[in-house]
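Appendix C: a fully annotated inverse folding record. The material below is reproduced so that readers can follow the format used throughout the book. The structure is listed first as tokens, followed by the designed sequence.
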């Protein structure tokens, strides 16, 4: 996983696949006010993470079911993120 730009500069993220490191990073970034599109397989950990991120912060995260390793689906998730938060250029985060 590469370090994203400072959260104040890029508070919108696409999480493409969920593992322990991505989950921890999401919570860290959520503490700075970040918003997320979570791209994960149906039945994967992404849906639960999306619900948890939205608890107390309605609308902070959007779940997008799909294959997080597919470049076309990653591009669609980035487009969704831009549509949800047009004032920010999203950053793609994925497991190492």
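Designed amino acids, in order:
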């Amino acid at each position: 996983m590469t370090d994203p730009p400072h959260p104040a500069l890029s508070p919108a993220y696409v999480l493409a696949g969920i593992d322990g490191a991505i989950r921890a990073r999401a919570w860290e970034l959520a503490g700075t006010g970040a918003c997320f599109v979570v791209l994960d397989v149906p039945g994967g950990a992404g849906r639960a993470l999306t619900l948890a991120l939205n608890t107390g912060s309605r609308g902070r995260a959007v779940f997008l079911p799909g294959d997080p390793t597919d470049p076309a689906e990653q591009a669609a998730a980035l487009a969704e993120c831009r549509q949800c938060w047009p004032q920010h250029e999203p950053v793609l985060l994925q497991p190492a």
